Amino acid sequence: MKKRLILLSFLAALGINSSAWAINPSSILDVYGDGKSEIILIKKNDTTYTWRTVAADGSVRTFNFGKDGDTLLVGKYHFGGKSEPALVHTESNNELMWKYLLPSGARRISKWGLKGDAPVSGDLDCDGKADLIVTRQEGENLRWYIKYRLRSRGTQEFTLGSKTAKAFAADVDGDGCDEAVVADLVSGEYVWTWRNSSYRTQFSKNWGVEGDTILQPGDIDNNGRADFIIVRNENNAKKFYVYLNGRASGQNSYTYSMGEKNDIPYVGSFQDRRYSQLAVYRRSTGVLYSAKRNQTPVAIQGPTDAGMIIGADGIFIDAPLVEENECTGNIVPITEIPGGGVLYKPVNVHGARGPTLIVQNRSQQTYISRLEIRNMNCEVIAYTGLFSSVGHYGSRYYMKSGGTGEDAEELLALAQTAGSNSILFKGIDGTWILVSNPLYREGSVR
Fold it and tell me: Residues 260, 263, 269, 275: is their CA dihedral positive or negative?
């Protein structure tokens, strides 16, 4: 049997499957070599970084590694079943220098990539060691550059994803090798695309919408395939939506709620090394809660005031926590409104009334006289006015009849201040209806 090493690549998942080994070498956060994930916390000092690793039994290891300007990560870059702290440093010639801290304390160095490249952790050739992988924005595309750890394999490059796609490495098809995976935002929905590591064939699956938190794929159902995971805020908790790869139709999804809305969603092999568990990390208390499928979460206590947790993909992002807003996790595309009956039009048949929202579905009507329009940062950018709430078409809202008066082009310009073409209309029960581009008609009425 091939050795399986899936090195899980968002401040925004990990531990993919087992092998014929006595332990599962797949968890990228397994710095102790027992097959389970550890909590890895990094705190920035004046010019250096302090690392703390917390095992399931609560034991803590502390060390300094890296300095200001380095990109920090973990991965199994050498044989032995343990993940190693690593860093990527930009040299004066704009080349990237990779440094690994071995369990013995010794350091190893490799060169690969250029300034501005983003590292990804993964083993694309099944040799049991993480390859040197970077992605680079080239034009409108994402270009992948790989230097295989087995010298005879040399290097490889290919294009996968748009320049803004989220990049991962995970064994999606269960062949024992990681695949290059991207989650790309297309017309308000996330399209997951992966490149088969053996046959270079690409496959794709729609899962998630704009505003969702995207996690590194992880094998939640223990079938050897990494599953796609998105997270939303619902009822003041984190709700995980998992697409189970390799399952028959009708049995291919799973949802689970846990934690609080400001927790950091996570995934790793914290309890069982054979597969991944969903988790949340609560920075205020230093506690990580992980849950096996359909079971009560188990707490692992880490130190408080120990800095930011390293990403579930093994990459550390030196950035403050971004507070969740009321739109986060509560976004529903207009095309996915339960029961349908909601339509956006960039122009009205009567012309002078401008962009129009029709809410024919009675269960979706809010009867608000001035309906907020927000950008993808959840900032109010305009209002639309209620023209009528009775008749065949239910509630009708017009921009230029009781609203703030923008036309479709002006709405698009306001939306783009948040780096997106999409706009949000206030819906029922705290939801926000997403229109992917105000220049185009979207949704339907009967």
Answer: positive
- Give the E-state strand segments of 210-276 in sequence order: 213-218, 227-234, 237-243, 253-258, 264-268
Q: What's the distance, Cα to Cα, between the start and end of the chain in Å? A: 56
Amino acid at residue number 194: W
343 contacts 360 by C-beta, under 8 angstroms: yes
User: Do residues 34 and 24 touch, judged by C-beta distance below 8 A?
Assistant: no
pLDDT digits (tens, 9 = 90+) for 126-172: 887 889 999 999 999 999 999 987 766 789 999 999 999 999 999 99
DSSP letter at 174?
A: S
Cα–Cα dist 306/358, whole Å: 50
User: How far apart are alpha carbons 124 and 198 in whole angstroms?
Assistant: 9
pTM exceeding 0.90: no
CB-side neighbour CA atoms (13 Å) of 18: 16
- Dihedral sign computed on CA atoms, order 153, 158, 163, 164: negative
- Rounded Cα distance, 357 and 366, in Å: 12
